[in-house]
Amino acid sequence: MKKSFKQSVIILLIGGLLTKILGMFIKIIMSRMLGTEGIGLYMMILPTFTLFISLAQFGMPIALSKLVAEHNRNNIKLFFSVLPISLLINLLLIFIIIIIAPYLSNNLLHDNRLLLSIISIAFVIPFTSISNICRAYFFGKQEMIPHVVSTVIEDIFRLILMIIGIPFFMNKGLKYALCYIILSNIISEITSILILIFFLPKNIKISKYNLLPKKNYIRESLSIGIPNTTGRLIGSIGYFLEPIILSTILLSVGYSNKYITNEYGIISGYVMPLLLLPSFFTLAISQALLPVVSKEYSKKNIKTVKIKIKQAIIYSLIIGIPITILFMITPTTFLKLIYNTNKGAKYIISLAPICLIQYIQAPLLSSLDAMGKSKDSMKATTIGVIIRTILLTILSLLKIKMWSLIISISMNVIIVTLYSIKKVKETLN
């Protein structure tokens, strides 16, 4: 049964809350079992993981969700037109990752302990891509329960795998523990895929005709997917370059590798995850918003589209404002409660107001994608990443420690959000 926008948001909020709680336990286990050095190394490789996931998906989940939501296509045939594109891209990326892994670990990330983890990414991305494409089909149908159930069960499996596996592999060495954490995603993603298949209609019929990709559907998917992927790719490249630029420049101006790894681990492993912990509600709002705006915008119901976008922003602020105030008043309370540390409190106080702006960014970007304005979304991301990278480079040379990273993150969020607001207004006027 299709859900209204509010119902979809509520379902996704409940699911998001559950997954955030589970994710919080996963992060607690990882941070306590790996230690500050281990978390630092994990956060050094995470941008690489994110980059290849973005490349592997190629914007196909967003494209599928939008096209299914418009209700004027053979959805089964559309699904099997999108899937081969994703699988071909994944095969190509597997070979690329294996080839460049030694150079990435030794020359760019400056730590050969990350080699096995980078190679592991190659085997994880196909499962992540298939899982997200399956979810996108249900999003387009405005069926949110399959996503919620599959994500919660996936995280339960991941939590169990962390509890069982990390202590065992830590005895063998930190690099093996990191490799295990990456590879454990295969099992959790397979679990998610099986759950999503279970939710497919029992009377669904797949003929040979449906299995043959349709050129028109492929063309439509690529027209949405390529700009979306370009935007995500640019964002991921910026994220990927962040630890490389930071470590290279800070090493050159006199900071030790231990200081850089520890401080970067604190910001990326403790501070940012904590500040973005409430982002599950913006993700829920954005996911529920995309099919609704796609459908109404295709029917030229501009007034309805404006109402839904305003609702999404208001919901984000209602939840975001009190959370931001709490983070600013008692940062050490949350750090101690979740990570059993008080490191990073000064960064939280500085970044909390910026994250309030971040909370409304996701619905704006989702709205642009839904209205077929993925190119504008890509431009917003591109401008933000360029400014962030330039600032990070210049400020790191000024020897202001990790504040170069904090300032560049802040400016990126502000610029992307303001640009997105401008483009949404232009599209709807």
Question: How are the SSEs ordered, and which strands pair?
Answer:
Elements: H1 5-57, H2 60-69, H3 75-108, H4 115-140, H5 145-170, H6 174-198, H7 208-211, H8 215-252, H9 257-275, H10 279-298, H11 302-329, H12 331-339, H13 345-370, H14 374-397, H15 403-428
Helix pairs in contact: 1-3, 1-4, 1-5, 1-8, 1-9, 1-10, 2-3, 2-4, 2-8, 2-10, 3-4, 3-8, 4-6, 5-6, 8-9, 8-14, 9-13, 10-11, 10-13, 11-13, 13-14, 13-15, 14-15
Can you walk me through this structure?
This protein is mainly α and 429 residues long. It has one domain (5-428). The chain is built from 15 helices and no strands. α1 crosses α3, α10 (279-298) runs parallel beside α13 (345-370) and α13 (345-370) packs antiparallel against α14. The model has no long low-confidence stretch (mean pLDDT 80).
The total count of helices amounts to: 15
Q: Which percent bin holds the helix content?
A: over 70%
**What number of structural domains do the residues give?**
1
Low-confidence blocks of residues: none
Order of helices and strands: HHHHHHHHHHHHHHH
Distance between the termini: 33 Å
Strands, count: 0
Strand content: under 5%
Which structural class matches the secondary elements? mainly alpha
Gross morphology: globular
Radius of gyration: 21 Å
User: How would you sum up the major sheet?
Assistant: none
Mean pLDDT: 80
Short description:
86% of the residues lie in helices and 0% in strands.
Entry keywords:
mainly alpha
